[in-house]
Design brief:
By secondary structure, the protein is an all-alpha fold. The chain is built from 5 helices and no strands.
Length: about 140
């Protein structure tokens, strides 16, 4: 409906902003986690073990980033299909927007639970997702 365009535009912009923030956080977080975990495992074994750990971290994070990118590419298909299904089922895009909201809130909650809490294992290692600069990341 034309009178709903402002709300639709606001939700669509919010969707793109949250998608961008989530995408940036994911692609920033993955190499940092693999680097820290591998360096922790090599700690105290000398410079050669640290070099190997960094090499393994680069390979592992590249593989996970590739897989994550492939899954993320599905969004270009699923988001328009969700809008179409919502409009077909209910006559409006509102249901799809609520579904996106629930999905993104659950993603934020799961990411916080497993990586950003102080009591999580990466949280204890100092990995923080809250816009911190880490000059040692790859």
């Amino acid at each position: 409906h034309q009178h709903s365009f402002g709300g639709f535009l606001a939700m669509f912009l919010l969707l793109f902003v949250t998608t961008g923030v989530g995408n940036g956080a994911t692609f920033r977080m993955i190499p940092v986690i693999f680097r820290r975990e591998n360096l922790r495992a090599a700690q105290g074994r000398g410079p050669e073990a640290e070099r190997r750990a960094l090499e393994v971290a680069r390979r592992e994070s590249a593989a996970v980033l590739g897989f994550t990118s492939a899954i993320g590419a599905c969004g270009g298909y699923l988001i328009p299909r969700s809008f179409g299904a919502s409009i077909h089922a209910t006559g409006s895009a509102e249901l799809a927007l609520y579904g996106f909201l629930v999905f993104y809130v659950s993603c934020v909650a799961l990411t916080w639970w497993f990586y950003a809490r102080r009591t999580s294992i990466p949280g204890q290692a100092g990995v923080r997702l809250v816009l911190t600069a880490d000059s040692t990341s790859p």
